[in-house]
What does this fold into?
Amino acid sequence: MERLLLSGNEAIALGAAHAGLRVAAAYPGTPSTEILEAIARFPDVYTEWSSNEAVAVEVALGASYTGVRALASMKHVGLNVAADAFMAAATTGVRGGLVIVSADDPGIHSSQNEQDTRNYARLGKVPCLEPSDSQEAYDFSRAAFQLSEDFDTPVLLRPTTRVCHSKSVVTTAEGLTLDRKPEFRHEPGKLVMLPGAARGRVPKINERLSKLTGYAETSSLNQVIEGSPKLGIITSGISYQYAREVFPGASFLKLGLTYPLPPNLVREFARRVDTLLVIEELDGFIELHLKALGITVTGKEIFPRSGEFSPDVIREAAAKAGFIEGSSTKCLPIGGLAKRPPLLCPGCPHSGVFFTLSSLGHRSALPGKNPRPPKLTICGDIGCYTLGAFAPLSALDTCGCMGAGISQAAGMAKAGLDEKPIAVIGDSTFMHSGINGLLNAVYNQARICVLILDNGTTAMTGHQGHPGSGVSSAGQPAARVVIEDLVRGAGVKNPAVVDAFDLKAVRTALRQAMTSSELEVVIVRGDCPTLTRKRGTPMQHDIHKCDDCGACLLIGCSAIKRNADGDITIDSGVCVGEYCTLCEQVCPKGAISSGIEVTP
Amino acid sequence: MTGQNIVIVGVGGQGVVLASNLLAEAALASGCDVKKTDTLGMAQRGGSVVSHLRYGRSVASPLIPEGGADILIAFEKLEAARWAHFIKPDGTVIVNDLALPPLSVTLGADTYPSDTEIAAMIRRYTPGLNVVNGTATAEGLGNAKMVNTVLLGYAARFIDIDSRLLLSTIEAALPVKLRKANVSAFEAGQKLSPLTV
Ligand code: SF4
Ligand code: SF4
It folds into this structure.
């Protein structure tokens, strides 16, 4: 028994490993990424970065069919990608325990939408567990495997960003050693879902749900914490921690298992308290179930239906509705301060191509000049390069979901847009689902330009490998799919490959691609500097040659600044020098160069 | 020990998360219940970073309520102003004397407040303002990256964890070759006196 300070993600990983996990698959996505990274440190568990979330669930399900314990992890939007595979697993059930972790992001810290994973639990009629701190992340992760095997079902584990990325104390228990030899048993009635067999599974699934409901009535995953009978609170996940801080004297029914709900337990709890509140982030999921049972509760009419909760959010909402005294000492933040949005890193290989798109498309104007109406239609995608949407680059017009950019551009072309639309996609996203869009665009002869920004990694989430990176989840060398070969195989005639740091070459390739009458693919290749960590001699700036035109500022490189006197300077602590040179290429006055003598 | 709420803020890449991890480990080693959480915005590429750390007998929420922090440590001045509303009326604010203007300021679309403006903004919440020469001190010791340890050294006088435990936790977390320099940085921080603003 150890006492450790772990993040929720590390705790989920350790809990799974201590439950005898054998196979884990994931696609990286904040806030879930660190789960697989932490599992990859256990040498006895096979881990992989799958090319997308559907693949991850299928890999884990296949492993489960051989009787071993398996896990797939992803973020909430990843479960949409994996929805088909998830429903398949929910239908056949499992052999070895199967846990699917889907991490929600209330408040949209780093996602394209906000959605409540618990709705998938109801859709698939599978249990959903919600940990509220790292200890529970560890305990529930372990318990989920047993639950999965006991009830022949995949189990959804739903942490949220605040649980995934908070650290709290975990007391560990003895790890299990399961001596299971993987073997497959022929059982078409369970595993081959032809209509006849699938029909046979339906009553089994419904039976499973009612058995689970019975289990929920007495399970230790759900806890009553006795307090004053005046106020009762039903809550789950991190909301429990906030609620007990705001209402220290209340009685709590803390649901660790939020689907299916235990009707008798909640009825009995409701009967014992004068007023009943439901406090849950995102949808009124528990609330709806309680109301369906005919229980009178107050929930989403006073607490927000969207965004992340905090003690402050709960206190304010409860005060407004008269449940507690309003706090008069509200601490308002200072307004009007300059924002600090994230930027592409210094030396980022995407800066040059976005700078070029931005200048070809009139996206930004030099300081003091009026912007012209923007040209070009640029469909973006999900990854680091989505940051190209921020000023000064302002180089993206759409961003929907993983892999959508190419198909959106094709749709625009097919709709009859005059100009040739441009799609911008990173290498990892291309492998994830961009390839599907490309296959479709080639087949249907969509006149678009596809720019694949290949920085050799999944940079946004912290440099995970993918089929084009040549690195496995454990950091070992792996087989590498060459993007230009893949693209050629998909039927693209002459994909261009250009050096991301050669602005002239990038501009020429873009112009060519934009004017041709066919579908064109340009692969813009350059290493991610935060992965390679290569640092050259920093650029130097000569204030005597500089006429302060501001062109270099339009790259959006955070190493280029103005000092207190208003002069351009280059931060030698962060510039990567000769591995980049974009500012040197952009400056019309030759005021930026490497290794010049700077006139004092 | 009654426990404390500590907010640490700065800009992505400055080592904010590392500093709060080190404090959290020290709090764990001193036998406390500990919770901490970091908000990095979209990844952490030069964006604003906030870390909440709470320790004591028993901690529920990892998030500190607004107006609930005993100590606010800011690695950058604008970020100090941005998160000042978290400090208690009798809390302590420690600000590293460093300005990192966001790109919007460089491009002329926004302005960066002056030192006196920032001081006034913070004093709206608490009189306990300490501006210290953290980056300059770390540079003087040969490595600007040690600003982390310098600031923790200075903050040690306000933190109710034994400073020796704090220092030994920092040492244990570092690779051997960085230990000596960081011990000096911590001690230099302990000796710093605040600037007048
Ligand atoms: S060479 Fe120029 S653009 Fe590239 S990292 Fe250095 S300052 Fe930034
Ligand atoms: S360094 Fe060159 S590009 Fe930058 S402002 Fe001066 S003249 Fe213009």
Residues A 541, 546-552, 568, 586-587, 589, 591-592 surround iron/sulfur cluster (ligand 2) (CB under 6 Å). The longest strand of chain B covers residues 87-96. Strands of chain B lie at 4-11, 33-39, 48-56, 69-74, 87-96, 129-132. The CA atoms of residues 66 and 86 of chain B lie 4 Å apart.
